[in-house]
Request: fold
Amino acid sequence: MLEQAFNGLVSGSFYALLALGLAVIFGMLGVVNFAHGAFYMLGAFGAFILLDSFGVNFWVALFVVPIVLGLAGIALERLFIQRLAPLDPLYNFLLTFGLALILQDVVKHRYGVQSQPYPRPFGGSIDLGLFTYPAYQVFVLAVSLAVCGTVWLVLTRTRVGMIVRASTERPELTRALGIDVARWVSPVFGFGIALAAFAGVLAAPMRAVNPLMGADLIITVFAVVVIGGLGSVFGSVAAGFAVGLVSALGNLYVPALSQTLVFILMAAVLLWRPAGLFGREEAL
Amino acid sequence: MLRVDRLSAWYGEAQALREVSLEVAEGEIVTLVGRNGAGKTTLLRCLMGLHGKTSGTIEFLGEDITALGPHRRARRGLGYVPDDRGVYATLTVEENLLLPPVSGKDAWPLERVYETFPRLRERRRFPGTKLSGGEQQMLALARVLRTGARLLLCDEPTEGLSPLIVQQIGDILREVKAAGVTVLLIEQNVHFAATVADRHHLIAEGRIVESMDNAEVRAREHELLDYLGI
Amino acid sequence: MVISPRAAASGGPARVRRCVVPSLALAAAGALLAGCGGGPAGGGGKISDGKVVLAVLNDQSGVYADVSGRGGVEAVRMAVADYKAKYGDKAVADTIEVIAADHQNKPDVANSKAQELYDRRKADVILDVPTSSAALAVANVAKNKKKVFIDIGAATTELTGKSCNKYTFHYGYNSYMLAHGTGTALTKDGAKNWYVVYPDYAFGQDMQKTFTAAVRNAGGNVVKSDPAPFPNDNFSTFLLKAPGLDPKPQVLGTMQAGGDLVNLVKQYNEYKLRDKGVGLAVGLMFITDIHSLGPDALSETRFTDFWYWNMDATNRAWADKYQAKTGKRPTAVQAGDYSAALQYLEAVQRAGTDKSDDVVKQLEGAKVNDVFARNGTIRAEDHLLTHDVYLAQVKAFKDVKEPWDYEKILKTIPAAEAFQPVDPACKL
Reply:
């Protein structure tokens, strides 16, 4: 039981990292980034390509891949998303949705749909007192908690975080108060993408690395973001871990329902609090 | 200090401002009065650069700022206090104060802000929106004073506040004026306006229809209140 | 912001994505296939439209694209070339065209594509069609149009059971063969207690039933069967609880396929279940899956295979030819595509015509011995190809000598034992 809960938290790590990126992007840009899953997939493929073609190991990939994809995200924001920003948000939905399909197909064209091999960076188990657990999974949980915690600290304790929060809440007023909001938009988008890529690299050793991995996962992540409250950073992280926990326990007790459990949870939360657990009404 | 020349603004096809020209001299407090929808808030937003569709020119401290974005105007010394006070819920009181960058040499240090508004010090760790309405207004004013703005654009700072707090705001405005800061104020409370301002413009249907001094405002107070529907 | 919850709740974007994606691939595939055949129509009236058209209908861009996909089309073209080389001037079918279409693993798409292939594109036979629901849809079209359909890629026994028909053949493998090969062999080897995890959709449920029956018949016991979401990337719940079941299972039988299988095996290794005394058996595994995981991850896992490229010199020679064309080693399904196309053309040759009824007559009861099928018979009663299949084991990494050299054949399961007896529900 405790072991199962722990396992839920591990898979929640991925939800949390992805939802966190979606949340900061949505908050700052008002864009629901449908390409988020594709960047997660690219993160895993990035790690695979680095290892396969250049012999670059996991640890280096864990830094390099998010940086490279984060920069690609910045370019994407500057070249495309920014241009569509003044129009109806639907344009950016379509843009990112189309982009997801293109990225997926490009990878599919080059590597096929079969999963690519990626070895574990280390094996072994860790004794957690009540039970022992595979070391890599403990590592995944620890790292994602650390990353989410760091992002939280940056957002709440630094001037950059203050500016991001202010711009998220009231972009126009923030500009009128002398802050160049536009300057922060691209980096925030890039950062959200980097988080997705980071999750992708983390996933490579323990999950199937194939072009569809992001598309399969992102649906749940959208549910996570909705549960947590759109644009709420804390909410999306908390909901990420909670959803991981719920699906793990769901698999255990009601396996037949486990596919829909997350969405039942989402519906329940929306009925109870339409803005999500940590969302503010006006954020809708 | 501020010179507005034939400023017009539109919301889609509807024209909200019609060739408004206006000057404000350094150290003055000037109020804009007018009914709801007359264009007062639009004028302030245009001055701040927040309104999209405009024509005409705006000159501030001898520089044409018409083409500048809002954050650049702020950095040149325009301080904006929006009609809803613009207090951030996701920022603490102190963060609200520290958010805008300092733009002028007469910026109030945080310590002075807290001495003037002791309530803000007491509640500095609270989220901005946990303050009462009056406190939020103080916060919004204090925030622009801390930047050292040369010209404050205040959109109805007294709206919905108790007389005691209105009086306090009056004191602050006078103190600010004494320190050489200029204020352009939207105010429906003409009685209050006459106690703090030097000159008044009456706006109707996007135009300045009349300009008055304090004596005239006092003399026509009832007529004005009737007109404004208060 | 209503879009994301609604899309999410209906299981939206990913599904949509999968259906939008293949159009590009389809266009590309079309280009690739042009220019087979050519030359004036000869033969004088025995061949409909003056040419024999072989249509490959399969998944060209989705989860099974690597198992058959365009490689399957290439294999069929190899069969055409071999047929022409064998008969030369005496070939009944002197103009042969190979066309292809993508059914995206969807029964409705498969249904309309099959009609289009038979009617508009003059297909005389449709080949491959993975995904059981799609295969059943095509079988129905074949029955109505009275045209030949030879399925290779799908697993359902229903094709030769209650949904069998005069024009439909099932060629290669099915869920009974997979479950019995692996379930029976391992249970007889001493793995009495099983824990079965299966994907919660038609194929998985079918596999779970057949597998459970096979294990019980061999004297074993299925301790528990759990349905898992599909698709799913986290199997930890099942893996964690496996060793704690009572009685403790010696084998975890997974019916997952493709990406799900890869996820499950990666996590199986994470939890070191092998060290905890829970072995792994895989219901359906293609060589592409082993490649994805790396042989180490699956080392010593046993499964039933129905063809392996490196089993003997014959297979290897064909695989070399295939590799020269595609750059890859063939999967079992691709070899099946080749054999089915070849046997179809041989039947046309014997019949002297491509008329469906005459070809069907030639196929029924035909003995097949080619690079794919050993000791093969196309059963006249239900149109199932029975042939030798193999209990295989994934090689340990140190034993892998060359790329794609992943399997060790442990034993041959003779054709007579490998497949189910004729289902009385099938009435041709």
Notes: Chain B touches chain A at residues 48-50, 69-71, 73-75, 80, 82, 86, 88-91, 95, 98-101, 103, 143, 147 (CB under 8 Å).
